[in-house]
Amino acid sequence: MLTSKQRAFLKSEAHSLKPIIQIGKNGLNDPIKTSIRKALDARELIKVTLLQNTDENLADVAAVLEEEIGLETVLKIGRILILYKESSRKENRKLSIKVKAV
User: Fold this and answer.
1) Transmembrane residues, as ranges (predicted)?
2) Is the pLDDT of residue 1 over 90?
3) What class does CATH assign to 4-101?
4) Is residue 7 within a helix (H) or strand (E), and if so which, with residue range?
């Protein structure tokens, strides 16, 4: 579980990120979950956008991803989710080291 300080730190880190995954009319399907997993493993912090043509609800998407992937939702704002998960690969754990120090 993230503390409020860690959450604030991750929000500031995510501010300059561009959304790399978009959920569209096909909804939150398995290929999208796989790409979210891979992106989190590589980067630890990502932005996901829900496009206008999706029927998905932001809170539902966040809940499903938290349960299935075990990630942390840093922020839900508008149609954007900021997601964080410590990388399973040691060489990619640059951000999580900073998060633990906060």
Assistant:
1) none
2) no
3) alpha beta
4) helix 4-14
From the list 19, 21, 25, 33, the residue with the least C-alpha distance to 56 is 25
- Distance in angstroms (rounded) separating the CA atoms of residues 25 and 4: 33
C-beta of residue 73 within 8 angstroms of C-beta of residue 14: no
98/53 Cα distance (integer angstroms): 36
Strand 80-84 with 45-50, pairing:
antiparallel
Tokens standing for residue 86? 């410590």
Enumerate the β-bridge partners of residue 41.
Answer: none
2 is written with which tokens? 């993230």
CB 89 within 8 A of CB 56: no
pLDDT for 44-67, tens place per residue? 999 999 999 999 999 999 999 999
CA atoms within 13 A on the CB side of 46: 23
Phi and psi angles of residue 56, each rounded to the nearest 5 degrees, phi first: -70, 150
